[in-house]
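ESCALATION

Customer reports they have been waiting on this structure for their group meeting. Please prioritize. Original submission:
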Amino acid sequence: MAIAQHDLKGNVLKKLLKQNPSHFREVLKKAKQHRLQIIYTQIDRDAQNVPSFKSHSYRADKNEYFYPASLVKLPVATLALEKLREIQKEVSVIDQYTQINFGASRPAQTAEIQDSSTVKGYPSIALYIKKALIVSDNDAYNRLYEFLGQGYIQRKLGEKGYNNSLIAHRLSRPIFEEEEERHTNPCAFVIDSQIVWQQTPLYNPLPHTITGKKMKVGKAYYKKGDLINTPCNFKGRNYMPLPEMQRMLQAIVFPESLPPSQRFALQESDYQLLLENMGVYPRYSLEPTYQESYHNDNFMKYFLRDTVAPPHLRILNKVGMAFGFLIDNAYVMDIEARTEYMLSVVIYANADETLNDDKYEYETVSKPFMQNLAEVISTYEKQRTRKYKPILQK
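Update from on-call: job pushed to the front of the queue and completed.
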């Protein structure tokens, strides 16, 4: 891979893409068709190890729609911890590991009071976060969504300046229509079989929608087995533009770098829970446990080519994959080389322009592009001049 032997000036990302035509030319020629967006953020430290950030982007546009898929699990997990801290002000005995039970108040909803994946036999906020971040479990995300409620999520995102983001529905639950997503289950925290806090069913009377964007994707789509020969309309579906997506990553990894109004109201143990489970490979998870033969190291690390990660590489990230969209939002650090950067990418690969037919080019187009890009940037980062090498203790 061609890399300039000096620090590049101007838009470094565009120059690195141009220097490696054999890896990027075919996708870049159809960048609009692929809805390609990239943000590469360099991180430099001062003498006190305080980071500063400089972003380089390619087609990053808050107005170009892409479906974020499982990317929404990171903000929902983070907001669940923030809401838990609010509840603790009233009921101090509750923490991340307290049992939480879900009831059902509407026909489409389901109850849950047990979880066989843990030795304790019951679910908790911490357990749902682990599942949602380590292997991107949809059911775990759905429970966190139900704990928060649609209205709470949108209000909190707006307060922190994520004004173009929308998290409005559960995942992989086609039975739920838009109106049903505004309703969420009753739930309660339980200690020694006694309810210590409970929440009645929530309803969001003021649903938020994204406007001013072209929300239609593809030329056709399947719905309940029938082919519909019109573009798929994503109006009312989840959305998180790439710039806001990376800023949220920064708010979790480097909270002190943002103004207080843009930070989450969390404590150190909350950040530690998020960071650990954003970075851990499934084979290291003790509870729940995952089969290494299926959940290899690059299962949820799309920038990683190898199925077993090199020991010096750390990737704290969240990915998304659905409808032909592949997304990774990551903080990458090399412990040996003492380099670090943030990289956020979305690419759409759906040659037949038909959604829900399970014919997407994730393995032949999207993942190779992402892996090549990460390798090019990592190589450049190793030779980039830094006045101070980062101390990567955290």
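Sent to customer with the following note: Residues 362-383 form the longest helix (22 residues).
Escalation resolved.
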